[in-house]
């Protein structure tokens, strides 16, 4: 995937200025401080926001799976139902993923889960959805050390061969995922 001369402003506020980079298969971490434009960039890549100028190449026809900054789960459904919602009939694969991420297989609605548990359900859902590329916006927020390690291992294994874009303000993410890093310049 290539980002080519991307510009984006909200009113007078310039957020992305002539941004270009390539993201080959593997993990690319997008690093910037809070407010630095990471979410804006990912939303443009997902087609949810329009750039003012420039383009994203190489994702034409690709299936994208995402973890948004908010979890966007079906709160009254169980974790496994949140997963099979994106891949019907995949109960076994969904259960395996939940287990890998230390999540319960019970019928408990995710509304009753902790914030970190919900974050892991959102990641599991993105990993289960049939996809060619993963777009992950701060997927590890609110996770303790052990859950974060489980997520990293799962992403490493299941993201293999895909373009994975991961917005982060934690430089440890890139180190632990052996990822390329794109640092958004301060504007
Ligand atoms: N819809 C919008 N309308 C106006 N301004 C916006 C809009 N979306 C984002 N912005 C502004 O654009 C800038 C970049 O926001 P963005 O959410 O992309 O940053 P970020 O790097 O993801 O931040 P964080 O790490 O805090 O999530 C911020 O100053 C934000 O206020």
UniProtKB/TrEMBL annotation:
Pfam families: ABC_tran (PF00005). Residues 1-187 form the ABC transporter domain. PROSITE patterns: ABC_TRANSPORTER_1 (PS00211), ABC_TRANSPORTER_2 (PS50893). This is ATP-binding cassette domain-containing protein. Keywords: ATP-binding, Nucleotide-binding, Transport. InterPro entries: AAA+_ATPase, ABC_transporter-like_ATP-bd, ABC_transporter-like_CS. Belongs to the ABC transporter superfamily. It comes from Dysosmobacter acutus. The keyword Nucleotide-binding applies. GO terms for molecular function: ATP binding.
């Amino acid at each position: 995937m290539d980002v080519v001369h991307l510009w984006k402003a909200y009113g007078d506020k310039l957020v992305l200025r002539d941004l270009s980079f390539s993201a080959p298969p593997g993990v690319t971490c997008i690093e910037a401080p809070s407010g630095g434009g990471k979410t804006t960039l990912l939303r443009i890549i997902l087609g949810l926001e329009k750039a003012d100028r420039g383009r994203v190449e190489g994702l034409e026809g690709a299936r994208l799976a995402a973890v948004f900054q908010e979890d966007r789960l079906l709160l009254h459904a169980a974790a496994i139902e949140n997963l099979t919602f994106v891949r019907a009939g995949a109960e076994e694969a969904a259960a395996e993923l939940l287990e890998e991420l230390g999540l319960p297989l019970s019928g408990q609605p995710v509304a009753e889960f902790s914030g970190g548990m919900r974050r892991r359900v959102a990641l599991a859902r993105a990993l289960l959805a049939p996809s060619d590329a993963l777009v992950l916006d701060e997927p590890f927020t609110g996770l303790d050390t052990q859950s974060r390690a489980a997520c990293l291992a799962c992403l490493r294994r299941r993201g293999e061969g895909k373009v994975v874009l991961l917005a982060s303000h934690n430089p440890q993410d890139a180190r632990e995922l052996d990822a390329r890093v794109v640092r958004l310049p301060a504007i």
